[in-house]
Amino acid sequence: MDFVSTRNQNNRVSYNQAITHCLCSDGGLFVPSTSEDMRPWIYYLKETTSFASIAGSLTSALLRKEFSPLVSEAIATKAFPFSPEFTQLDDNLYKLSLFTGPTGSHKDFGVSYLVNCLEYTLLLQDKTATVFAISDGEIASSLAHAMRGKKQLKALILYSKGSMRGFEDSDCIWNGGNIYPVEVDGSLEDCSLLARQLFSRQDLVQKYNLTLANTVNIGRLLPQTFFYLYAFSRLRGRVCGDIFYAVAPGNYGNIVAGLYGWKCSLPVNAFITECSQDLKLDATGKARLNVDATPFAQRPWVDPGSPSNLERLEEVFQTQPMMLRGLIFPRPVSEAEREAACRELFQKYGIFANGETAGSYAAAKKYTENFIDKDSSVVLVSRDHPALTGENLGSFVGSFYGRDWITRICGKAPVLPEYLQRLLEPIQPEKKISCSLQELEGVLKELAG
Question: Is the distance from CB of 22 to CB of 218 less than 8 angstroms?
């Protein structure tokens, strides 16, 4: 499988090129160039097949021109010593938990896969690279954990003032590790500004071989497709009807990844989500994208510091427009409905649900009232540990839906495990810079030194 730009189908690159030079030269985002018929492989999946094995087999099938089956299996095994958790809640409802990695965030999966693919690619080329990230809460923790033991990679992580956390002393460059955490004297928006300035300088990007750890990088997004294959492997022996996935909109990464899975013949009947600013209902009750009508090629460059997969979602629906109306089903969710969903999940199933998971459940209930039968099943996708929402994470629902919100509704607070408590402990920065590209370039020189 090759990859092309959302803005130019002739801008075609290999997967290795797409993950090491993750920003398209035309300012767009890399997307798969073709669809693969994976049915002969999908229908051999078993409930006992491990997540790492599914990831390795799918990597080999999709990227066979670049990764042999043996290498694909090795990458997946190293990337995924952890696995999602799939549980049955009742006859028609299942839950796919993605916060089972080392930092309690669904990002653990994508970051670990990307880093291990990069390490293998760079080793073959006898090159090194620097992974760039802005800490929005959890990604720095995921990256620090995934980078341990890597020889071809270093990571530069920018933190806004007072937010440094999520790594150990031994992870740092000056202690023999391979991450360089830097505090910027400013806000997260200031860090994003620095990212835009840095990646607009192609001379610096090439000189230091920079790539991104967020979902601008297709290598972060592609492994999210594995979630749905894993869920299906657990469902195929249990259900005989339609399968629906209830997933939060977020930055549309999980929805896009699910659609890529569908294009590879994943059995799925709909993705149910909460209405968002960009994904709404039209007058007929069908999904519509509320986006800029400006052609891709005339838009500003994709923002490397503030990732969104909206353009990838648009690209899917431009090439296959019926998918929007036939596969994506957003439903508006009121505050009362969100709270009721949170309360019901706790009282009925003993589950703590953060704001986005509760919103997904509420949307699924509204959709399935009219469109589900006794043989159909809903998989509720829960992305992040409920005790890490709001004030702990860069969550789309904000701090209002944090632990205090859950406690008020459920009468009990989700317990934050000790290993996650340690990740939230503040760290005093060794390196500080102002919001200055010149100072950031100085850090890059030290890192390359």
Answer: yes
Query: Of the candidates 72, 173, 61, 54, which has an alpha carbon nearest to the alpha carbon of residue 120?
Result: 72
The dihedral over CA atoms of 420, 426, 429, 433, expressed in degrees to the nearest 10, equals 100
Residue (of 272, 235, 191) closest to 94 by Cα position: 235
348 Cβ contact list (under 8 Å, min separation 6): none
Could you read off the pLDDT of 194-240 as tens digits, one per residue?
999 999 999 999 999 999 999 999 999 999 999 999 999 999 888 88
**How far apart (Å, rounded) are the C-alpha atoms in residues 434 and 263?**
45
Residues 98, 204: contact at Cβ < 8 Å? no
User: What pTM did the predictor assign?
Assistant: 0.94
Round to whole Å and give the CA distance between 135 and 159.
Answer: 5
Residue with tokens 């629902």, as numbered in its chain? 397
Beta strands 8-13 and 3-5, pairing class:
antiparallel
pLDDT digits (tens, 9 = 90+) for 359-393: 999 999 998 876 567 788 999 999 999 988 554 44
